[in-house]
Amino acid sequence: MTPAELAEQEKHLFEVMSRQRFLKMEGLSNEVPFFIYPYDANDALAVAKARRRITNKLKQKGIIVHEINLYSLSIKILNKRRVLNRLIDLEPSQDKGDFCELLQGLLDPEEYLAPAIRAELADEDFDIVFLTGIGEVFPYIRSHNVLNNLQSVVVGKPMLMFFPGRYDQSDALGSSLVLFGRLKDDQYYRAKNIMDQEA
After folding, report:
1. What pLDDT does residue 160 have?
2. Is the peptide bond before 139 cis (omega within 30 degrees of 0)?
3. Is the pLDDT of residue 186 over 60?
4. How many CA atoms lie within 13 A of 16 on its CB side?
5. What pLDDT is attached to residue 175?
6. Are 160 and 25 in contact (CB under 8 A)?
7. Helices assigned H by DSSP within 26-69
């Protein structure tokens, strides 16, 4: 993505999210207020800077963003469970598949991630949730699992997932998240591509 294209996307994101229609979740026809911002993983650093600028500009308009970084949250959960140091010691000698399976159990979205996110959001006053760190937690946390488990957690506010990959949508094949543009996750039907939203 060229700097000009990113600037145009940043402008679009800000304009969409600063509208009352978006904040009040109007026109969703009882669908969950989840949105995806797909971007090329090669642009991750530029997108992170754009995200910070958008957050600051929204704050200037009195719109508060609460960002949940899945990687940071995972570290926090593993620390709280007092297993992080043991995992670090164990990792070099473990089979990669077995280690991934162990992490999947320790960070199960339904049992651990969703409750941790619920607790974090309960203490905050915010208007929009940004979900980040998606690429950093692959393959032990899958984005479609997180989204499915957040439907009863992030309620009454819109949520935007910053997704390093493609969000393919078609009437014939349904919708699917393609991480890094290569790894097809399970199908996920309920989120909207924020780039398709009217600014």
Report:
1. 95
2. yes
3. no
4. 21
5. 66
6. no
7. 44-60
Collect all residues with Cβ–Cβ distance below 8 Å to 58 and sequence separation of at least 6: 14, 17, 18, 64, 65, 127, 128
- How does residue 189 score in pLDDT terms, banded at 50, 70 and 90? low
Q: How far is CA 91 from the centre of its chain?
A: 26
8 A C-beta contact, residue 127 and residue 65:
yes
- Indicate the SS3 state at residue 167: strand
Task: List, in order, residues 6 or more apart from 25 with CB less than 8 Å away.
Answer: 33, 157, 158
Q: b/e string for 149-186 if b means 16 or more Cβ within 10 A? A: bbeebbeeebbbbbbbbbbebeeeeebbbebeeeeebe
Residue 172 has pLDDT above 70, yes or no: no
**What's the pLDDT tens digit per position in 112-147?**
999 999 999 997 899 999 999 998 998 888 877 888
